[in-house]
Amino acid sequence: MRRFFILLWRFGRRDMRLLWYALQHPHRPGWLIPACLLLLVFAIEPFNFALPPLGLADDLVVLPLVLHTLLRFLPPAIQAGFDARGSARPVHSR
């Protein structure tokens, strides 16, 4: 179970960085901002407060999967720009 959460965190971390890059990109698709707003509303929906176990399940599993799927629809130029930018950064080892 721990490996699952570590894997989910790694995907989520990269996806959040890609999302931030795409939101700042001058050629971002028009649907990106409304989709991000819907995702934000889903993240803070009332079920999180009324049914905490259900809210925990969607925050830990559903949100990262939906975000990852959403980012797969980005234009290839944005994804390639993010990948090129990421490979230019130094790698820190622990």
What does this entry look like structurally?
With 94 residues, this protein is mostly helical. The chain has one domain (2-79). The protein contains 5 helices and no strands. It has helices at 2-24, 32-43, 47-50, 52-71, 76-87.
Features:
about 90 residues, mainly alpha, 5 helices, flat
Write the layout of secondary structure elements.
Elements: H1 2-24, H2 32-43, H3 47-50, H4 52-71, H5 76-87
Helix content: over 70%
Beta-strand portion reads under 5%
Radius of gyration: 15 Å
Total of DSSP H or I helical runs spanning 4+ residues = 5
Average of the residue pLDDT scores: 79
The multimeric state of the shown protein is single chain
- The number of domains: 1
In short:
It contains 5 helices and no strands. It is mainly α and 94 residues long.
